[in-house]
Amino acid sequence: MHSLAGRHILLGISGGIAAYKAAILTRLLKKAGCDVRVAMTEGAQAFITPLTLQALSGNPVHTSLLDPEAEAGMGHIELARWAEVILIAPATADLMARLAHGHADDLLTTLCLANSACWVMAPAMNQAMWAHPATQRNARQLESDGWTLLGPDSGEQACGDVGAGRMLEPEAIFSALSTLMDELPALAPAGNVLPAAGLTVTITAGPTREALDPVRYLSNHSSGKMGYALATEAIALGAKVRLISGPVALPTPEGVERIDVESALEMQTAAEGALDDSDIFIGCAAVADFRPAEIATHKLKKQAGEAQMHVVLTRNPDIIAGIASHSHERRMAGQPSPLVVGFAAETRDVICYARDKLTRKRLDMIVANDVSTPGLGFGSDSNAATLLWHEHDTIAQQAIDACPKLALAREILLRALTLHHRKTDIGPRKRR
Ligand code: CTP
Predict the structure, then answer these.
(1) What gap in Å lies between CA 151 and CA 169, rounded to an integer?
(2) What atom of ligand 1 comes closest to residue 271's alpha carbon?
(3) What is the pLDDT of residues 297-318, one digit of tens each?
(4) How high is the pLDDT of residue 54?
(5) Dist. CA 407–CA 185, nearest whole Å
(6) What letter does residue 33 receive in the DSSP assignment?
(7) Using an 8 Å Cβ cutoff, are 118 and 145 in contact?
(8) Which CATH architecture best describes the domain 200-424?
(9) HSE toward the beta carbon, residue 337, CA cutoff 13 A
(10) Do the first three CATH levels of 8-187 and 200-424 match, i.e. the same topology?
(11) β-bridge pairing 147-149 and 118-123
(12) What is the pTM of this model?
């Protein structure tokens, strides 16, 4: 996995001709697994549209400080706290001047003042503007304030001049940023605080077994690998993890509290018992939808000549829908409530069924995966998925290509953490 994977990068774009190269930079960051959010100045939007950056980053683009709708989604203070790195590319002479003097007269400059993580910029301007004593003074001021300046490069400029002032190529910015992040791992939000520190994550995993008699049961092919990968990654992100596990042949990840259950009813009892003390609840288990209406006390015996056997099944409770409904009630009552994440294992019309489950079960987010793809999903170490969550009045989605289940688990958790911080209106540095 790339060292930038999972990092929260806020890409600031100001109004210069090099703004179009920010699209390539966004793609590079996304390909490396970064969570990218883009903030554009008004000038930048004259060179490249927010829609382009929205499509490439997979997130809404932030353009205005005074937009009530955007503020209701992820407000500017929350966005500033969310960012591990603010990367401005291109940074124009005007933006540099405003930042050097501590202005907060638009969204991007305000975000820079409100963020205390890592600041990197790639200046881009005409060579005479770069050489001007005022710009040079501003550049020195910015460096002494803690900004890392990448470039500018020398060569032919869009205006026909030749000299120093061109923005570094996106590939060079990307590689310099990677080196910076490698060398300075403590630049994560709040210094060394991990993004899930102080949070409790409860995860259900594996299949359930629904007994027919003392020796037989109904079950499914779930290996539990996805749920266990989530538990492993949640620990790595600093969470306290409770794993409610159906019967699987997997070792307990280090540091995880594991509660073993067999049937759906047992899983439900354990899940409801965990509700009070969970910040994020992830239902990854493949719960049997039905159980035998009666469990025979003794082993069922064949009768002579009996060619068929009929078993009456009773519907099991929908565990995650119950948890989501309790969580919703708490939220309405102004009480702390966990963010609830479900899975949708489908073999056709994956997104359509997942959207339906997201809404019907009142989940905050759902992980949709196609369990019919050969080599992925059940029993495999890899998986591909699409994450779907509520964003304003629509449902946003993020596709994750086939990757190891651990990498997918990290993406799921990072998205869930972003939604959790938004829901509780606290940044990663301010937890109970
Ligand atoms: N789930 C649950 N309790 C159940 C059934 C499912 O908590 N009795 C949860 C799963 O853990 C998963 C989500 O619901 O997070 C969706 O599970 P899935 O098997 O995809 O769907 P079902 O709800 O069972 O619907 P269907 O079988 O009709 O697709």
Answers:
(1) 10
(2) 7
(3) 999 999 899 899 999 999 999 9
(4) 96
(5) 19
(6) T
(7) no
(8) 3-Layer(aba) Sandwich (3.40)
(9) 21
(10) yes
(11) parallel
(12) 0.63
Residue 33 corresponds to which amino acid?
G
Of 88, 60, 87, 85, the closest CA to residue 75 belongs to 60
The domain locations on the chain are: 8-187, 200-424
Question: What is the CATH T-level fold of the domain 8-187, as seen in this structure?
Answer: Rossmann fold (3.40.50)
DSSP letters of 88-128?
Answer: EEEE-HHHHHHHHTT---SHHHHHHHH--SEEEEEE---HH
Residue 20 has pLDDT above 90, yes or no: yes
Beta carbon of 342 within 6 Å of any ligand 1 atom: yes
Task: Measure the N-to-C terminal CA separation of the chain; round to a whole number of Å.
Answer: 32
User: pLDDT for 160-219, tens place per residue?
Assistant: 888 899 999 999 999 999 888 765 443 344 434 577 888 999 999 999 999 999 999 999
Enclosing H/E stretch for 271: helix 264-274
Amino acid identity of 305?
G
**Among 316, 357, 366, which residue has the most ligand 1 atoms within 8 Å of its CB, making it the best to mutate?**
357
Q: Which amino acid would we find at residue 174? A: F
